[in-house]
Amino acid sequence: MAAPLPQTYLATGLVPRLPTAVLCTGIGLFSVLLCCGLIRDTVTKGRIEQKRFAYLVQPAPSILASFHETSDHETGQSFQR
Q1: 25 φ/ψ sector (left φ>0, alpha ψ -120 to 50, else beta)
Q2: pTM of the prediction?
Q3: What is the C-alpha radius of gyration for the chain, rounded to an integer number of angstroms?
Q4: Is it the case that residue 65 has pLDDT exceeding 90?
Q5: How do residues 8-17 score in pLDDT, each as one tens digit?
Q6: Transmembrane stretches, by residue range (predicted)?
Q7: Which of 6, 10, 20, 34 is deepest in the core (most CB within 10 A)?
């Protein structure tokens, strides 16, 4: 659809089918934006996955450390178990 347009322009210096040229330009821009969107989506998903892997590498907190010191909510006093 777009192949004859540059040939005609180079031969005559005119674009006789302007609607076709506008349509081809729109389709070309849409395809470029679609490819950029797919690349951006893939990069975003990869970064999220890398963050999740970095989180999973961290060791789990110790169970005894969480029970070491607890505060009494009613009196505001802290005590050790």
Answers
A1: alpha
A2: 0.57
A3: 32
A4: no
A5: 888 988 888 8
A6: 20-39
A7: 20
Lookup: tokens for 4: 């004859």
Q: Quick one: tokens of 81?
A: 């178990």
- Amino acid letter, 28: G
Structure tokens at 28: 């070309």
CA dihedral over 74, 75, 78, 79, signed as positive or negative: negative
Residue-averaged pLDDT of the chain: 83
Q: Are strands 69-71 and 78-80 parallel, antiparallel or unpaired?
A: antiparallel
d(CA 81, CA 68): 7
